[in-house]
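Friendly challenge for the regulars: who can give me the structure tokens for this chain first? No prize, just bragging rights.
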Amino acid sequence: MRYCRMTKLSMKNPDGEARSDRFSCEQGEVYTKNLTRFMGMLRKNGLAVGIQESQDAFRIMEAVGIEDRNSLKLALQAILAKSEKEKETFSACFDAYFISQEEWEEKLKQELEAQTQYEQQMEAANQELTFNGEPLKVREELKAVYIQLSEERRKEMQEYLQNFPNPVRNSAVLYTNYISHMVEQQLLKEEGELYENQKVTEENLLYKNIGDFSEEEVPRALQLIQNLTRQLNKKLLNRRKKAGKSGTLDFKRTIRLNLQTGGSFRKLAYRHRNRKRKKLLLLCDVSASMLRVSEFALRFIQSMNDTAEGARTFLFSEQLQEVDVFALQDLDKFADHVKGSPLWCKGTNIGGILQRLLQMEPAVVDGNTIVLIISDAQTVNIPLTESMVEELQGRCSRIYWFNPIAVRRWEDSKSIRTLRPYCTMLGCSTLEELALACEKALSDT
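First reply, four minutes later:
Bragging rights claimed.
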């Protein structure tokens, strides 16, 4: 059993019985991990949380425990939030990052049910993979392949084993080992086919129009987004490392570096200009035709490491609404959040939205802001939209426009033709195009 630092976790069930140590330790680990991220979010939202406050918060968590979520919240709030505004920010952060006891129990219940189902399937595989009444020696990872096969394929393998000739008595063990080897080879072949089928499915989703995804395909698409963002993170990280090696040659530092080698210039030093990170402003169209595209784009951007500082997100249709950053922590509930807001089932007025955005005080856009608009550019007032996009272009660093309409159809749309000169418009009708658009836009931050 893993060692759990949170020694005061004396958690009990409603019937008075103590919960398992596994529950206490695992929940304690989740809370401790979330506390670290929680501190960063508080700092990002303007609270003065330094090293001393972080250490105090960890001590309070160990002292108070997590049995009473409200007590922990009040104790942390006492040292981390002073004004009423800070308390509101703290409360929103806490509720977003620290799941309730009921949510944790439901999550644990689902994990236990999945584990129980897997164990039952493995037990069934042990009973089915037998020859002459004896279980075959098949590796567990290949049994896992067996339980993924269709019922028809499993029945074919069982019939194959049942119809195989009985061995001679003095060679029964050798014969059984031979059958085990044959079954393992067949399962290895099946594993390769399963992998190829999965790969074909992912490729189909990669190039399929996002608006055509069925509800059954969405979970696989979300997994594909996670894979794509991991690759994209690595690519951007390598690009930044290479960029760090370029710059103006620094002669003095180069000479000092190479004195130990007698003045031979084996190492070169460069002078780099301090580059200020860009701010990122997201404007997401959440009209009915755009909701899924906006959700997928947000999943890409939220999964990116170190994309930009001070990123702000606004949702719009006929109205404009800044989305609470904490609501974006669980994008599985993003669609429900939008459908429960005044933005749902409305038309799109991009010009009016941008006009309202540019009139905000304090200003949300300046010369260090990259604006990323996710919309099909279909709007009720094209002249006003053109005027506002032109004004926005003059105030910000750059505008990237993610458009889910197929690029070949852009010339057929008057609004797209009108707005393209003022921004960098990128296609995002498929997951592949969306990944490429994110790479281009976020590499600029």
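The chain has four domains: 21-99, 122-206, 218-271, 279-442. Strands lie at 130-131, 134-135, 248-249, 270-271, 279-285, 309-316, 320-322, 369-374, 398-403, 424-427. Your move, everyone else.
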